[in-house]
Amino acid sequence: MELNSIAYTRRSSIRKVLANFVQIDYILAVNKLHILFLSLLVFALLSYKLTQPFWGHHEFNGVFYGMIAKNYLRYGILQTRGAQVTNLSPTTPSQWSFHTNHPATFPLLLSLFFALFGPYEYVSRLISIVASIVAVVVLGRLISSIFQTPLSWLAAVLILFSPLFLYYGSLPVFEPILFPVVVFGLYIFWKSQRSPRLVLIAVSCILASVIDWPGFWLPVWLIVYELATQKRKRVLFTLLVSIAVALAIILTHQLIAYGSLESVVAVGRYRLGVTSQPYTPIAWLRLLLSRTRAFLGLPIIIASAIGFVVALRKRKRQAFFFLAAALGIGISHIFVFRNVTWYHDYMLYHLLPFVGLALGSLFHALYVKTRSALAVVAVFSVIVLTTVSSTHAFFTALVNLTPHEDCVEMGYQVRRRSELQTFQLTSEKAKECPPFIGFYGEKPFEVKIKDQ
Description:
72% of the residues lie in helices and 2% in strands. By secondary structure, the protein is mainly α. The longest helix has 45 residues, at 2-46. The N and C termini lie far apart (105 Å).
């Protein structure tokens, strides 16, 4: 009897081991399918305007940074010393004008792809689409790492249906490029809770910071998180060094390229809103709230808020502080540099990592409460359907905006005709159109202001 009992116990143990092995193998297989599914879904959702001219809302960025990238190819990196030359037609170095508001990382990357594939709209947009694919995949992995329950990764899918992601995920601008680097930094940091991966932490923080100024909030808020949790001296030192190294890279390049740091100081003063601005604090806040609702959708906002509160109520100290750090990364640039937010609604893009994590917290709590994957799928489906239905009209109007179509047509006209083209424009259009004309015309032209 005793021998039979021992044999039964052994068989049960073997079955458990085999079951665990099969389950682990199944999970790994599904994760691979997740990556494929997310990659195809993101590409399908963002490629709807892949070859469309840059005449839409905020697509000034496409021609502006595209022109800088073309000038890198026209004059060469050595001759420009990496400076962002904004001239619209060939000229001598003594007549160059420069853009100094942002680091040169993105235009340099854009010039590399222009050199490989040509200076086309689809090339510019593909860079941002690929970055968006990587960001969503890594965000899904991060959510699964923090909230280890089935289907928590669906939170990464939810953000895909917000107008914020659908419109700006393919825009040739800094935000989509910064998104995967920030999420990767968060992922590496979370995986480093027990065994710090200092080199990867430093690389992600430095890379985020040199892509654009909002990237500096990644190491800043990771420092805040570390001080609130483990207080590891080596990790804190690594984060501080990454900030110093990134600043040194940017400022050294500014000195080499432009000969001084005056432009950096002037940009900082302007963005902080020290000078008089065309808005009041109340007007700024109202605009911010209305944009947040329009670009994210009320269902996602409410669900994210619930997920954040749930993380606090469940008293999972590390997870809650990590979500708070992600929120800090998302809102710091918005609130500190209010002037930028007033003019650029895509500053909200920095909230996407937090939104994904907060939704992951909600799905985790729902599964723990119900022990039902079906319940998670049901809530996910409801949020998707209500988000799409409530934001469809806004998104459709946004996509159909073509405020720069006339400027692009002028550029085509310059390209087609051999004689010098002169355009009679209003003072407003005279400020707006030249970058579009220069990017698409690729030849000299003249602009004269009409009498009002």
